[in-house]
Specification:
Length: 161
């Protein structure tokens, strides 16, 4: 009986995650990246409030438009998704978490929704920030190296199609 009582609440949270995914898709349009536009939102499911947002792009105060100046280094070097993750822009998840830190917002127990699966570096940052649940949009384009790390760290991972 307890699980039945909680079922409507879970459905509301899932609907909220889908709404946040739609908003993250809009936020991703701010990315200058010519390769892929990704957006992320950190939020509290229990309060249904957004804590922070981010999109993939350059570092705060950077004078570059893209990671390679006027071009994408990953495209120029023909790096496949999931490989050599040290090359390129700051990912949406990194920006959302960093923006929260910059504003002094604690993320312990929060959830994040991302328009693409997290890479391994973003997965590590998600775990270290205390985020407990990741909603993400999948797709054939993405090679994720972070999913197993997140699962192993006890972070709930939910794919939204």
């Amino acid at each position: 009986m307890i699980s039945n009582a909680l079922a409507p609440k879970r459905k509301i949270f899932a609907m909220s995650a889908r709404i946040y995914l739609d908003i993250a898709m809009t936020i991703s349009e701010q990315s200058p990246c010519t390769r892929a536009r990704v957006g992320a939102i950190v939020f509290r499911e229990d309060r249904k409030t957004m804590l922070s947002t981010g999109y993939n792009g350059q570092a705060r105060k950077s004078d570059k438009i893209l990671c390679g100046g006027l071009c994408c280094d990953r495209d120029r070097l023909q790096i496949q998704s999931g490989d050599r993750i040290e090359v390129g822009c700051i990912h949406a998840e990194m920006n959302a978490i960093s923006n929260a830190v910059f504003e002094g917002i604690a993320l312990a127990g929060a959830s994040i929704v991302v328009t693409a699966p997290p890479c391994l570096i973003c997965a590590k940052l998600i775990v270290q920030s205390g985020i407990k649940k990741v909603y993400y949009r999948g797709g054939d384009r993405w090679v994720s190296t972070g999913e197993e790390f997140l699962k192993g760290a006890g972070v709930d991972l939910i794919k939204i199609d």
